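Suppose a colleague, Dr. K., hands you the sequence of a protein chain of 326 amino acids and asks what its three-dimensional shape might be. Before reaching for any lab equipment, you can write down a predicted structure in token form. Begin with the sequence itself:
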Amino acid sequence: MTQITRRSALALPAALLPLAARAQAPWPNQAVKIVVPFAAGGSTDVSTRMLAPKMQQMLGQSVVIDNRSGAGGTIGSAAVAKAAPDGYTFLMGTISTHVLAVGLYGPRLPYDPEKDFIAVAPTVMVPICITVHPSLGVTDLAGFIALLRANPGKYAYGTGGAGGSAHIGAVAFLNAIGAEATHVPYRGSGPMLSDMLGGQVAACFDTPALIAPHHQAGRLRCLAVATAARSGLMPDVPTAAEAGLPGYKAYSWFGLFAPAGTPAPIVARMNEVTRTALLEPATAARFVEQDLPPIAEGSPEQFAAFLHQELADWVPVVRASGATAG
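The predicted structure, expressed as tokens, is then:
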């Protein structure tokens, strides 16, 4: 062996030491990124940013929020599905990206919500509420149902877009009561609300955060909230079950996902960190103020089982609605 060769052989293990040290370093040893597949300022983005400070404190590393919007959240979701499963890229998925998109896109969906992701932790359950314009003359859900049944197809309802959780919730409502109404999809909840206040549509399906100020002012009348619990913003409004329609549900939810193949210890740790962040008093108070009810319980396995059931429940409703991604 020549002198140069001996020196190279001796230097090689030393050169590899930094790489080995990095490979064996405890996770996390760099910033953790959470992709939000929607634009900044929406409820998915806001809720994720509220969790980030506590998560960052617990992990001892920066938590970076990366907004990658487009195609109903599927662009950002697809990017995470293809990301390295090393514990440094996560997705704040929703019912839209992981359930409704399956029915809307069909085989064109660039990922499988169950095979390409690991469910880490649920974060928020956002109710959808049924609201009417006062000019309709109904004061409760029973009256609205009777009106729709007596006048098939006469009345129009608005949502923030075709194929969203509000639209699919409305379809489920009409299926449950055996009635017909005309869907008017808008390019977002803002334009829909404007027409709703003006009486251009008789009813709408959207979140309590959007409706509450107008319900309280008497400009709109919310008839029911379609989750098991009443809204903290409108405690006077009954749940659908209380209003005489047991079994009906309509909501959106958010939850943290990791690329398939992410190590189980990292998934377990992120589940713990997420749940702890949701329970932190100041953060919990902010969630209440925004009417974003947190889900601070559930293991990764329970969240995966929940997702599986959601797919079974909602994908047939999406397909029956005729809504597509275009």
